[in-house]
Design goal:
Blueprint: H1 10-21, H2 35-48, E1 56-60, H3 66-73, E2 77-82, H4 85-95, E3 100-103, E4 118-124, H5 133-143, E5 144-155, H6 157-164, E6 175-180, E7 187-192, H7 195-204, E8 207-215, H8 221-224, H9 226-232, E9 238-245
Parallel strand pairs: 1-2, 1-4, 2-3, 4-5
Antiparallel strand pairs: 5-9, 6-7, 8-9
Keywords: Methyltransferase, S-adenosyl-L-methionine, Transferase
GO biological process, one term: methylation
InterPro entries: Methyltransf_11, SAM-dependent_MTases_sf
Length: 251
Amino acid sequence: MADDGRKSNGTTVAGYDRLVQQRSDLETSPWAGSAYQRYYVWPAVRSILPTVSGTTVLDAGCGIGDYSEWFLDHGSEVVGVDASSEAIATAERRLGSRATFYCADLTEQLEFASENQFDLVFANLVLGHIENWRPVLAEFGRVLTADGSLVFTVIHPVRRYRRHRDELASYYDVDSYVLEWGDTGAAVEQYHRPIAEIIDSLVETEFCIDQFREITPREEYRDANPERYEKATEEPDTLCVRAEPRPEPRC
């Protein structure tokens, strides 16, 4: 662990490596092909994305390159980064030279990226695997242009706490639990953090929050997962956030 509290999560990386290896047999996919992402997460993301044509995008936690491909198809230059070597290898096979991919840990400095390089940093359902957001968000701020945007999604802390309260110290603490992925043998570590900690992490790393949405699923999600659909229409399940580097003076 580095002096600033950055922490690499070997359990999660090994878990995603295993999920990539078994991706053709997965009952529930962690990537864009899942009903959860198609009918719940992605429609909300689309609604808050800035114009992407002609921009340079960092797909942070790019997985097997699903969203990297979408950004490419919509006119962006894309750099993808993920800690799973299996995911990166798959993304490279799928997209070839259309995008540039790096196997690297988001909790470390992004040595491949220069200051003010990207118009958009997109981090879909990846920050929930990270304990300390501040160094990661600060690095995102470093590589973003002054008028760039950070768009990210995370599982809502209310859902995390309701489902895993026996494994967590309290709603108000940042705490972790390990999620077993069905019968795949894969495990990933997840971090619960309260709403206040999400907001404080952004503010303290010089971001202004532009959109902060407790999203609801589209009707199509009902058939795929009726129980989660009904719950998500009644109480928070997933957050979708857009933030921008803070201008001067302080916002």
